[in-house]
């Protein structure tokens, strides 16, 4: 059911600071709260709806951290353009305020995370939850002209990312993009357990002129590497059977000259240790991917 919303201009940094005491009380004393404000641009949304959505996310995080932990709320701005192939299916191009609610709790399996925004879907025991919390958050974001995404993995934690429209849609300041001087004829192996993201990444690289192979998991990728010449391994970090770091280590033991580039919407947020391997954060633009690939190949 659509909830009646009255969007106004919201000074998000101010709202969050006023809301912080309630967040801390809801979480209890064994959860530390961190607020990272990387923008002061106002958003356009219904304040009561936003507060209800945030409270839902905070309570979910609390329930996922029975032994305590850290809850981080990160606010930044992001320009979505036609290049943002992973976002334009859900968002019109323009300016958005992005709110990440990040916990260090139990996390979810990929199967559970995929269904987390469905109404009445819950993994909580009877009497502990209705299964409407995340569905309401997603509904609020979509009705506000934005969207919501979830990144999670078992035993590492969960990040829910909200996109809300900026109050004013001004013209973005274009950041200089490093254009590769000459594209190498490289063969790239892409590994991702999410079939939709795998397909989009493969198509983007093919469009950029690379020869692309793909695999859904680490073992499948290692088998391919035994039979196919590959210049660059582009792998997701958090995967069920074998992590991207484990795959990279095994692949480079077998092929010492193989270059590696990690990609994740999760590791960059959760502080997962990736060592010295370069990482590109999802969702990425085609131009950002091209630059990251070129730098990894030349590194």
The assigned CATH architecture of the largest domain is: 2-Layer Sandwich
Gap between N and C termini: 52 Å
Instruction: Specify the helix fraction band.
Output: 25-40%
CATH-derived topology of the largest domain? Heat Shock Protein 90
Which structural class is indicated by helix and strand composition? alpha/beta
Strands of the biggest beta sheet: in what spatial order? 2-4-5-7-6
Strand content: 25-35%
From the alpha-carbon coordinates, what is the Rg to the nearest angstrom?
Answer: 20 Å
How many distinct beta strands? 12
Q: Tell me the name of the CATH homologous superfamily of the largest domain.
A: Histidine kinase-like ATPase, C-terminal domain
- Quickly name the level 1 CATH class of the largest domain: Alpha Beta
Number of domains: 2
Biggest sheet, open or closed, and with what strands and sense? 5 strands, mixed
SSE string? EHEEHEEHHEEEHEHEHEHEH
Q: Output mean pLDDT.
A: 85
Keywords:
single chain, 299 residues, alpha/beta, Heat Shock Protein 90, Rossmann fold, 5-stranded mixed beta sheet, 5-stranded parallel beta sheet, 12 strands, globular
Question: Can you walk me through this structure?
Answer:
Helix content is 34%, strand content 25%. It has 299 residues and is an alpha/beta fold. It folds into two domains: 8-165, Histidine kinase-like ATPase, C-terminal domain (Heat Shock Protein 90), CATH 3.30.565; 187-298, 3-Layer(aba) Sandwich (Rossmann fold), CATH 3.40.50. The chain has a five-stranded mixed sheet. A five-stranded parallel sheet has the order 9-8-10-11-12, with helices on both faces. Strand 11 (259-264), helix 8 and strand 12 form a beta-alpha-beta unit. Helix 1 packs parallel to helix 2 (47-64) and helix 6 packs parallel to helix 7 (244-254). The longest helix has 18 residues, at 47-64. The radius of gyration is 20 Å and the shape is globular.
